[in-house]
Amino acid sequence: MNFNTVHPALEFVCPCCGEKLTSGVGFCVGAVLRHNYQMRDELIWQGAECRPQSQPRLGNIKTVGYFNCDNPACSSWTDCFPEVQYALVIVEDNRITGVESFAVPADAEVAEFAIIEMA
Ligand SMILES: [Zn+2]
Asked: pTM score > 0.90 for this model?
C-alpha cells in the first residue's frame, strides 16, 4: 500500500522509551504518492489517488500514522525489529503542524490509516 511519510525530527519522542524519533511516520492523506514531508510542509493534492478525494474545506485533518522506534534499546523492540506504533498526524490549514503519540482505544478497532477528524 502506498503512503506518505512525515519526518518529525526532534519534535516527536517515542512513548515507549522517550527517545527522539529520527525515522519517519507513515500516513495516508493528500495525494498518496510516497511523498516525503517535513514538519510544517503543505500537503500536496495533485495525483491520481487522493485521500480524502479532495482537500477538506478548512484543510484540517487528524489521521492515524505509523512508526517504528529507532532506538534498539526501546521496549517496543522484539528480537531484532521494533513493533509498529501509532501516531496522530495533525494537519491544520493544509500544513502538517503536529505529530503526537496516539493511544489506541482499548475498546475500538482503528481502521488502517484512519482519519479521526476532518474539517
Ligand atoms: Zn522507543
From this structure: yes
